[in-house]
Amino acid sequence: MKAVILAAGVGSRLGRPFPKCMSLLPDGEQILGRQIRLFREAGIRELIVVVGFKKGLIMEEFPDVFYTYNPFFYITNTSKSLLCVLEHLDDDVIWANGDVVFDREVVEAVVAHPGNVVAVDRKRCGAEEVKYRADGQGRLLEISKQVDRAHGEAVGVNRVSREDLPTLVRSLTACQDDDYFEKGIEDCLGLGVAFQVLDISAHRCIEVDFDEDLREARRMFGVESSRSAQPLPSEFVRSELRGSHSGLELMRRELSLAASAA
Question: Which of 8, 161, 187, 212 suits a disulfide with 52, CB 3.0-4.6 Å?
Answer without folding.
Answer: 8
